[in-house]
Amino acid sequence: MATGYYLQDNPNPNAGQYGWPRNRVSGVVGIHTAENNTCFNGPDPGDADVARFIAGRSDFGSYHVLVDADSVTPLVHPSWAAWADTTNNAHAMSVSAAVAANDWLAMEETRRRQVVINMAAAAAELVQTAVRDGLLDSPTPARRITPAEAIAGSRAGFYGHGETNPSTRYDPGKDFDWNLFLTTYAGYIGGGIATVGDITPERPLLIPGVAGLYL
User: What is the DSSP letter of 73?
Assistant: First the structure.
């Protein structure tokens, strides 16, 4: 019977992309970009393309949910760990956009905003599922947390992948609209915004050494 979660319904035969069944999660949610080729106009195939890539890749890297400009693809139920961030896979959840972090400002504004809004909607659905299924007591607050808190799972909230892995990762990038994300997410969960904006000094947007997808 289909679960509605892409990676569970299409298990990777080369490298399992989820595991470690969990009875509880911390409420920490990582925000990522998949670093695929950004689609700048027309129907967006990004989340479908990245989902297929993850389902066949021979190394490890996945998320709980993936979005693009016009769709959302749940990949893994939050009761399973996804391989999104080596620092906190055991307790965290993850949301990724099928774009490259360098491309936020190269996108037309309406399309860029829609990707971020879809990320917020996906994050709300993810944490509400965790609450419904007894993994969390209440939805993750609409706030940024520090890298230390994200790694330890000591405070529920949102962080960027590059904040916990600054030497190798930079997503979702310096141009990611945290204000829009948190404001929209707060509206979906019916809660206020505890913190908006950066909580660490802005880091330069690093350019990956190898072109193409990375997770």
Answer: E
Answer whether 163's CB lies under 8 Å from 144's CB: no
CA separation for the pair 138, 116 (Å, rounded): 23
Main-chain phi, psi angles of 62, to 5 degrees:
-160, 175
Q: In this predicted model, what pLDDT tens digit does every residue of 94-124 receive, in sequence order?
A: 999 999 999 999 999 999 999 999 999 999 9
51 — phi, psi (to 5°)? Answer: -60, -45
Q: Does domain 26-189 have CATH number 3.40.80.10?
A: yes
Look at residue 60 in the predicted model and tell me its pLDDT: 96
The whole-model pTM stands at: 0.90
Nearest residue to 193 via CA among 153, 159, 144, 156: 144
Instruction: Tell me which H or E stretch contains 18.
Output: strand 18-19
Report the pLDDT averaged over residues 149-162.
97
**Spatial CB neighbours of 142, under 8 Å, sequence gap ≥ 6:** 158, 182, 183, 185, 186, 189, 191, 192, 193, 194
Query: Chain-centre distance of CA 94, in angstroms?
Result: 4
194 close to 138: Cβ distance less than 8 angstroms: no
